[in-house]
Amino acid sequence: MSLFVVAMQDYYEILKSLKAKSFSPVYFLQGEETYFIDSIIKEIAHSALEESQKSFNQLVLYGKDTTLTDVIGAARKYPMTGERQVVIVKEAQEIKEWNTKDKENLILNYLENPLRSTILVFGYKHKSLNRRTKLGKAFEKHAVFLNAKKIYDNNIPDWIRSYCQANAVQIEEQAVMILSENIGNNLQRLSNEIEKLILNIKEEKQITSKMVQEYIGISKDYNIFELQKALSAANKRKAFKIAGYFASNPGNNPIVFIISKLFSYFTKLLMIHQSTDKSDRNIAGLIGVNPFFVKEYLAASGNYPINKVMQNIKHLHEADLQFKGIGYATKKERSILTELIYKITN
Asked: 269 — phi, psi (to 5°)?
């Protein structure tokens, strides 16, 4: 099972428990993917206390402005009213005492005997405690522990499907690809856009590509996913038409994003060429796409021999340097993009 799948299971299990009002005394949420950390903290803040109790029983601390002594001292207090209090430590990685021996013992003692009327939450962002240390092992043993690894582009379609599944809605495969290819791995924006789609869903309980176009404003015909399809089929006319649309709407279609997506696309074609096993199942796993799209990638690998794929990756690198003005005369985005599409297709 992949680390991505394990992380997603852990994340949804934690959310499921919180929504069911089942709370643990300590949560330690660490890692690069801050969306997961923020989502769990938000759910705890929402679910653990009634709104009227928050002014008395919810304390939010920030790592750069607090100490571990302050945190544990707050955690050992009893709630002013009601059955529980919540202590949330945001940006916990900024606390300067993590490697101090006496403060480490302070945390270890609390983890072994936490106050049951306190929910203590650490949001430890962009970094990870060493899980082989005494402190790391103690958090894993005594706390609800989440290691939120960064989600890469090839995992985004699975994340979209799992998000929709968790919200009891279905989503068309083409809608998955349009969202993943046009929004990328910005999980906060993706979740916001999916929530918008869920609010507008019809009786069939399915998010469609038409809905994506209507409610998010991603054109059904002029998007990066359609550009890749046009390039896959070596359809020069359609590729230039889409590139022209992008050039006319640079605010919604930044060239750095287009270059990044096409670089990822041709890298996948290179991986296909280098693989000896061309079965649908192997290729799907290798390049991280739904088996539904494998035939399109295999067809593209036929239209672009390995030497041409490598040449196109070089063209994309050069276009990136042109856009950044590194070693090349300054050009307008439209010129860089149309020239890039010409080089890719010829």
From this structure: -65, -40
Cα separations (Å) of 249 from 182, 243, 333? 14, 10, 11
Whole-number mean pLDDT of the chain?
A: 90
C-alpha neighbours within 13 Å on the C-beta side of residue 176: 23
Return the SS3 of 263. helix
Strands 85-90 and 58-62 turn out to be parallel
131 φ/ψ angles, rounded to the nearest 5 degrees? -75, -5
pLDDT (0 to 100) of residue 4: 59
Pairing of strands 85-90, 118-125: parallel
Residue 144 pLDDT > 90: yes
Q: Return phi, psi of residue 302, to 5°.
A: -75, -35
Crossing angle for the helix pair 173-183 and 209-216, to the nearest 10 degrees: 40
Give the tens place of pLDDT for each residue, 321-335.
988 888 766 678 888
Among the residue ranges 183-192, 271-280, 309-318, the one predicted with the least confidence is 183-192
Q: What is the mean pLDDT of residues 294-309?
A: 94
CA distance 337 to 340: 5
| Rounded CA separation 169/188 (Å) | 19
* 311 neighbors 325 (Cβ within 8 angstroms): no
- Within 8 A by CB and 6+ apart from 47, the residues are 18, 19, 21, 23
- Three-state secondary structure readout of 51-113: HHHHHHHEEEEEHHHCCHHHHHHHHCCCCCCCCCEEEEEECHHHCCCCCCHHHHHHHHHHHHC
The predicted-structure confidence for 109-130, as pLDDT tens digits, reads as follows 999 999 999 999 999 999 898 8
CA 39 – CA 19 distance, rounded (Å): 12
| DSSP, res 280 | H
| Max Cα–Cα distance, the chain, nearest Å | 72
